[in-house]
Specification:
238 residues, mainly alpha, Tetracycline Repressor, domain 2, DNA-binding transcription factor activity, transcription cis-regulatory region binding
C-alpha cells in the first residue's frame, strides 16, 4: 500500500457501517460423525448470502433502466426469487439496498486506490492518470449505481455522509501528494494544497458523472480521462 495513503487512512479512520447491514453471522462446525454426511448433500435452498447478493444484483440491473423511485420492493423480491417478507429480512427498504450498493462501489474504488503502486521513475502524467483512472474505471463500471447514488444525496443523510466521508479522505490524500511534489521541487507553491485538491476532486466528481450519464453538456466518455489528467497536471505543475 502507498505509505502516504496508509497514513491518510489511519488519520481518517473510516469505518463503513453499511456493508454488513448490522448482521452477525455465526459459523458452526458439525460433529465429526456428521461431516461426511453433510459433504454428500447438495444445498436444497440458496443461502442467506446468495439471497442478499441476488437482491443487490437485481437492484443494479433495474437501475440501469429506471430510477429508484420507479422500482418497488416487489420488483426487487421478484427479481431475486424471494417473497416480499423475505426481502425485509435482509433490507429494511429499497433505499437501504441502494445505500449498500453505493457503499460497495465506493469501497471498491477506495481499495483500488490504496493498492496503487506507481513506478519510482513514472512521469507525473502517468502518476496522476493512474489515480484518476481508479475512479473512471470503478464508477464507470457501475454507472447505474453511481447515477442513483448521486440522485439520492438530496434526500438521504446516510448517502451524503457516506460520500462526504470518502471524498474528504481522497481530498486529503491528494493534498498530501501535492505537498510532496512541492517539497521535492517538482511543483511550484501556488494556492493552498488542500484547496487545490478539493477543487480538483470536486471537478472530477461532476465531470465524470456528467460523462457517464451522457448529459448535455459533457465531455465525451472516451475523452474524459485525458481531459481530467491534463487539467490536474496543468493546475499542479503550472
Amino acid at each position: 500500500m502507498n505509505p502516504r495513503y496508509q497514513r491518510n487512512v489511519e488519520r481518517v479512520n473510516v469505518v463503513s457501517i453499511f456493508s454488513t447491514h448490522g448482521k452477525l453471522r455465526v459459523v458452526t462446525t458439525p460433529p465429526a460423525g456428521q461431516t461426511s454426511l453433510q459433504r454428500g448433500r447438495r444445498s436444497a435452498r440458496p443461502s442467506g448470502d446468495d439471497r442478499e447478493l441476488a437482491i443487490l444484483a437485481t437492484a443494479e440491473k433495474l437501475l440501469e433502466d429506471r430510477p429508484l423511485a420507479d422500482i418497488s420492493v416487489d420488483d426487487l423480491a421478484k427479481g431475486a426469487g424471494i417473497s416480499r417478507p423475505t426481502f425485509y429480512f435482509y433490507f429494511p427498504s429499497k433505499e437501504a439496498v441502494l445505500l449498500t450498493l453505493l457503499d460497495r462501489v465506493v469501497n471498491e474504488a477506495d481499495t483500488a486506490l490504496e493498492g496503487l503502486i506507481t513506478a519510482p521513475d513514472a512521469d507525473r502524467d502517468t502518476m496522476w492518470r493512474t489515480g484518476i483512472n481508479v475512479f473512471f474505471e470503478t464508477f464507470g463500471s457501475h454507472k447505474a449505481v453511481t447515477r442513483a447514488g448521486q440522485a439520492a444525496r438530496a434526500s438521504s443523510a446516510e448517502v451524503r455522509q457516506l460520500w462526504s466521508t470518502f471524498m474528504q479522505k481522497w481530498i486529503a490524500y491528494t493534498a498530501e501528494v501535492i505537498e510532496s511534489e512541492r517539497d521535492r521541487g517538482a511543483a511550484p507553491v501556488t494556492v493552498a494544497a488542500l484547496e487545490l485538491a478539493t477543487a480538483l476532486n470536486l471537478m472530477n466528481e461532476r465531470t465524470l458523472f456528467a460523462s457517464f450519464a451522457a448529459e448535455q453538456p459533457c465531455v465525451p466518455e472516451a475523452h474524459v480521462l485525458d481531459t481530467l489528467v491534463h487539467i490536474w497536471v496543468s493546475s499542479i505543475y503550472g
